[in-house]
């Protein structure tokens, strides 16, 4: 586990976001747009991008192919991600990067 993306291999990202009081539904709408974008042809390096909610807390599961630098850059450049960053709807955000364990 690392706070910064590893430089090689398939990367799995686990992110946690907690909405500010009364802002969870609004944050959910923005996250749904980010999920749509990440799972579209706009983000070819993103293999999987999923989001789950429990109350005001959201968990994201992301997988990127071998070119993690391009995958993360591509994701962060998209309008839905930029809208999330600018929204000010979160009170906590945590992002952890992992290398996928090779399949046997």
TrEMBL record:
InterPro entries from the UniProt entry: Dimeric_a/b-barrel (IPR011008)
Protein name: ABM domain-containing protein
Organism per entry: Rhodotorula taiwanensis
């Amino acid at each position: 586990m690392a706070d910064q993306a590893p430089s090689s291999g398939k990367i799995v990202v686990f992110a946690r976001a907690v909405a500010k009081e009364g802002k969870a539904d609004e944050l959910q709408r923005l996250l749904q747009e980010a999920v749509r974008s990440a799972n579209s042809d706009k983000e070819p390096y993103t293999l999987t991008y999923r989001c789950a909610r429990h109350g005001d807390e959201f968990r994201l599961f992301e997988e990127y192919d071998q070119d993690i630098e391009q995958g993360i850059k591509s994701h962060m450049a998209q309008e839905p991600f930029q809208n999330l960053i600018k929204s000010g709807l979160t009170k906590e955000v945590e992002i952890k990067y992992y290398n996928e364990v090779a399949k046997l």
